[in-house]
Amino acid sequence: MRPNVFLALVSLTLPLAAACRLPLASKTLINGVAAARADSWDEAVVHWKNALAQNPDSAAAHNNLAIAYEKQGALEEARKEYEAALRLDPGNAAIKANFEKFKARLGAERGRKL
What we know:
Layout: H1 3-17, H2 24-37, H3 41-54, H4 59-72, H5 75-88, H6 93-113
Helix pairs in contact: 1-2, 1-4, 2-3, 2-4, 3-4, 4-5, 5-6
């Protein structure tokens, strides 16, 4: 996993881990991070989709799901999740940075295919 992507994942969920009693959605987010650390992106997707089912307004879950989709090569789904995360938390610098890096990689990839 790229260090900058991993740090973005962890930085969004570490404050959740510090709570004494975490809501189920937060535990699900953390389980998704654990799966991502193990490079188990399919499992991470399941956890983050479950987190969104419990809390559809979780910008962190949308962002993390976007990263997982990106790792799986599901680029359109990744774009939609990044956009959802930014709609929910437009001032979040980590989400903005993740989306900008995603768009840059996508542009570079498209340039190589021409």
